[in-house]
Design goal:
The chain is mostly helical and 166 residues long. The chain has a two-stranded antiparallel ribbon with strand order 1-2. β1 and β2 form a beta hairpin. It starts with 7 loop residues before the first helix and ends with a strand.
Length: 166
């Protein structure tokens, strides 16, 4: 649920945590699955999330200096949710995890779109518009990967990771 009374500092802190959580989701997902096309897309998404976080931190510093954190990771997890990658055991659980990652990207895009007007700095507002667009784009990439995963036969490798069966 989107809080109604967030300050600009809280919004930025939540956005930074969201980008870190999303990066972590893609990193954990990449460790749990060995599908070449998905791996390459996850690497791209991870790089984007890392860059987004870095840019958000720069905007935070320029607007608020070294202000104490106004929102923590726990609050971000309550707002954005957590994608559980530990439950990936087979094709069905991989599909469910990808669906959850899509919802997380869509919600992140919604958050950025709704919160951009509360940010006092013009460049940061524009970056929030970019983040909203990127979230939608990332959700589309994940949807494409989900379609591919649904269309392939999946087996488990010796480490218990889902892999494409030949």
């Amino acid at each position: 649920m989107l809080p109604a009374n967030l300050s600009p500092l809280e919004i930025l802190d939540l956005a930074i945590h969201n980008e870190a959580m999303t990066f972590s989701t893609y990193d954990r997902l990449g460790r749990r699955v060995d599908l070449a096309t998905l791996q390459s897309k996850l690497a791209l998404l991870k790089k984007d999330e890392k860059d987004h976080r870095k840019t958000l931190k720069a905007h935070r510093r320029s607007m608020f200096g070294m202000a104490a954190p106004a929102a923590g990771e726990e609050e971000a997890q309550r707002i954005f949710g957590v994608v559980d990658t530990n439950g990936i055991r087979d094709k069905e659980s991989l599909v469910k995890t990808l669906e959850a990652a899509i919802r997380a990207e869509e919600y992140g895009a919604y958050f950025y779109e709704r919160m951009k007007d509360r940010i006092p700095d013009r460049e940061a507002r524009i970056f929030f518009e970019v983040l909203s667009s990127e979230g939608k784009f990332h959700a589309d990439i994940l949807r494409q990967q989900l379609t591919l995963v649904r269309g392939v036969k999946i087996a488990l490798d010796e480490r218990g990771r889902p892999v494409e069966a030949v």
